[in-house]
Amino acid sequence: MANLRRLALTPELDGVIKGGEWEPLATAGNATTYLQWEPGWIYWAAEAPANEDIVFSLDSLADGWTTGPDNFEIRIGWRGPNITFAVRRLNNQPNGATAWQSGQIPPDMIQFEARRSGGRWTMEARLMLPGPLAPVEGKTMGVRVDGQVPGAIDERVGPRQMANVRLSLDTHVGLPEGLQWSPRFVNRNMVPQDGFAVDYTLTRDPNGARPDRFAFRAEGIGIDDLGKFEYPIEPFDNRNRTMFGVKSPIRPEAKTGWRIVRAEITGPDNLKFMVRSSVRIAPLLDINASPIPSLKKSTRPQRIRGTVDLQSNGTQRVQGVVTYRLPEGFRMLRGDESKFTIYHARAKAGTRYEIEAPAGASGDFVIGVIVQVGDQRFEQSIPIFIEDPV
Ligand SMILES: [Ca+2]
Ligand SMILES: [Ca+2]
Asked: How far, in Å, from the CA of 90 to the mean position of ligand 2?
């Protein structure tokens, strides 16, 4: 079983796999596959023969494919003129009952883009995972991406070999023994008008290496959004520590999303290593909804209460209004048209809502949160899963 580490990095879903946009996962059969994440979302992509479906298997809690209700299979194909899409969940109950449940994922929670060229096709996709299944730093997820000829649908509920991927925000390559590093960000969310800043600390064992120079830049599709810098590193102090910092403007037209920044660090005797961190080019406002505990199907209407925090990522005052978009049959009881003002830099405002799910509802649903700030509109989805027990 492979153990991998992935930094948060947002690809652009357009059906084209650009250099530096994705990190490879594996070459399996005739398909080349890719995997990535950012908080709340998992991304996968593949380049495969046109007659093969791309099958993504996800063990969200990495506790085993045959354990828990957290195991998803998403199959996307391109047959004739049509893109086909099927999702199912392998639900393993503690009592030993196991079943494939065919699923529906609301459009807000999954997106994909594909392109065909000659006898091959490329596909880029993303899936939002709610609550305890959500991708966050430090979590490990079991993943697998395969190219499969249609018709070969695997009905077995037995074990499935997965790669364990550890979701990270910082990593290093070639770090010599006896050296430690740590980055410090005032905030990893950075609004273009406020600029970019990071401070690095290096600590060495008494006889360890002495790096003396660094070269900093952004990677991949964000490469031109930040400046490129190369400077000497101050000598280590008598506690065997040194620090260096980078400040850079952010290109105003930079796209929002998670990007990777790197510092290549060098020194005498061909010393060379690299430290990498994920940072987010952020929108002015983030909408953070409290997760909704999983519900069980009921013969009566069910009340769902939650809070929506509005997090400013900038330094100026933010004023706006919150509205909601509900699935069919759901009813708003409280909290629509909430006004808010955030006075301070990077502060937040809290709002509450209460809605009612109709009797007998089950499956995956999405509540849409819409925040209007002047002429800027921000949207967020709150996923709800109402379980229909096996
Ligand atoms: Ca792309
Ligand atoms: Ca599992």
From this structure: 9
Count of domains for the chain: 3
Which of 259, 281, 303 corresponds to the end of one domain?
A: 281
pTM assigned to the model:
0.85
Expressed in angstroms and rounded, the spacing between residue 13 Cα and the centre of ligand 1 is 5
295 touches 387 (CB < 8 A): yes
For residue 140, the ligand closest to its alpha carbon is 2
| 372 φψ region: left (φ > 0), alpha (ψ -120 to 50), beta (else) | beta
Tokens 């002429």: give the residue.
375
Same-domain pairing of 184 and 267: yes
- Is residue 131 classed as helix, strand or coil in its secondary structure? helix
Measured on CA atoms in the order 143, 146, 150, 156, is the torsion positive or negative?
Answer: negative
Q: For residues 242 and 282, is the Cβ–Cβ distance under 8 A?
A: no
Task: Give 47 Cα–ligand 2 centroid separation in angstroms.
Answer: 27
Range of the domain at 292: 285-387
3-state secondary structure of 192: helix
Q: Are 275 and 246 in contact (CB under 8 A)?
A: no
Centre of ligand 1 to C-alpha 11, Å, is 6
| Distance between Cα 114 and ligand 2 center (Å) | 28
The ligand minimizing its distance to the Cα of 160 is 2
**For 13-40, what is each residue's pLDDT tens digit?**
999 999 899 999 987 678 999 999 999 9
Ligand nearest to the CA of 64: 2
Ligand nearest to the CA of 162: 2
